[in-house]
Design a protein that fits this description.
alpha/beta; Rossmann fold; Pantoate--beta-alanine Ligase, Chain: A,domain 2; 2 domains; 6-stranded parallel beta sheet; 3-stranded antiparallel beta sheet; 12 helices; binds adenosine monophosphate
Length: 317
């Protein structure tokens, strides 16, 4: 397995591959969810590239700094899953066009200072703004960004779209693999790919869950046993909501979910539900009645640690 740190080497590696390439973008601290994406990519392509980059452009500084990192273990897991190349660029490498020549700290200051903005984002179309020394900063249209997780911080998805567009242009993957767990993210990346002219095939991979029903997530390592049992309670309530079946009215279901949350045993922990919505899993438009294509999504914080769950009413697509 090749471990590649520079963009030029990554491009050179890609240039040497004649067959299909599957890309699995990750932020590391790998778990079974990532493992499943890697397996799908392995089964569907001649070569597999996994990128591992904790993207500061999509985080507040505090969340970026505490994001778990475990490079050595990640490389072992990737190798065990048959990855051919791991692309692990530094922030300075990835965002040289934003502020080349700056120290890592100065570049991070610049990155955290340009977050936000975009109040004038287009309702329907993607747009590229120029930031720093002229780097393209993708603005996700309001129809996709200004809801669910983007309601309070739509710039999060600008950061995701910007880094993924850069990865696609560097790796030029035949297929790119993303988890259905992050349902708004995958809907945005699908639309981004269409806007860019269908440069890759986006493959949506179903959610992988732990035995207590909680979706596998890099952040689970940050939870105490008490916090974890609250996460399991949320997963169970969301599963019940989704299990109400087609035709059930969303308003009453959300009320029942909120009652269930209020009854959860939280001990000294603080649980905050950020949002709970029922959406069409392709368009991420809100729905009033559950249908077979509805996804139920909940973002919540336990003692400030942000987690999310997605459940499907029908079979996941
Ligand atoms: P992350 O490293 O958190 O950015 O995740 C990298 C990719 O793995 C994203 O496409 C996620 O949607 C996907 N992913 C994360 N957790 C899961 C999971 N439990 N099941 C399926 N895919 C996942």
């Amino acid at each position: 397995m090749d471990v590649i740190e520079s963009i030029s080497e990554m491009r050179e590696w890609r240039g040497g591959v004649a067959g299909s390439v599957g890309l699995v973008p990750t932020m590391g601290c790998l778990h079974d969810g990532h493992g499943h994406l890697l397996e799908r990519a392995r089964g569907g392509n001649d070569r597999v590239v996994m990128s591992l980059f904790v993207n500061p452009l999509q985080f507040r500084r505090e969340a970026f700094e505490v994001y778990p990192r475990r490079l050595d273990e990640d490389l072992k897991l990737a190798e065990g899953r048959g990855v051919d190349a791991v692309f692990v660029p530094s922030v300075e490498e990835m965002y040289a066009e934003l502020g080349g020549g700056r120290s890592r700290d100065a570049l991070l200051d610049l990155i955290f200072s340009i977050q936000g903005g975009g109040e004038d984002r287009d309702q329907l179309e993607f747009r590229i703004d120029r930031v720093g020394d002229g780097m393209g900063y993708i603005r996700v249209p309001a129809r996709l960004a200004m809801k669910m997780d983007g309601r309070l911080h739509p710039w999060h998805f600008d950061g995701v779209a910007t880094v993924v567009e850069r990865l696609l242009s560097i790796v030029e993957p035949t297929r790119s693999y993303f988890g259905q767990k992050d349902i708004q993210q995958v809907a945005i990346l699908d639309a981004l790919n269409d806007w860019a002219g269908g440069v890759t095939e986006i493959v949506r991979v179903p959610v992988v869950r732990e035995s207590d029903g909680v979706s596998a997530s890099s952040r689970l390592v940050m939870l105490s046993a008490e916090q974890r049992s609250i996460a399991a309670g949320i997963a169970r309530l969301l599963d019940e909501l989704a299990g109400s079946g087609e035709g059930a009215g969303v308003h009453a279901l959300i009320e029942r979910f909120e009652d269930g949350v209020a009854r959860l045993e939280t001990g000294p922990c603080e649980l905050v539900i950020d949002s709970v919505v029922c959406v069409d899993s392709r368009t991420i438009e809100g729905v009033d009645v559950l249908t077979s294509s509805t996804a139920v999504y909940c973002a919540y914080l336990i003692d400030g640690i942000r987690l999310a769950e997605t459940q499907w009413v029908g079979a996941a697509i």
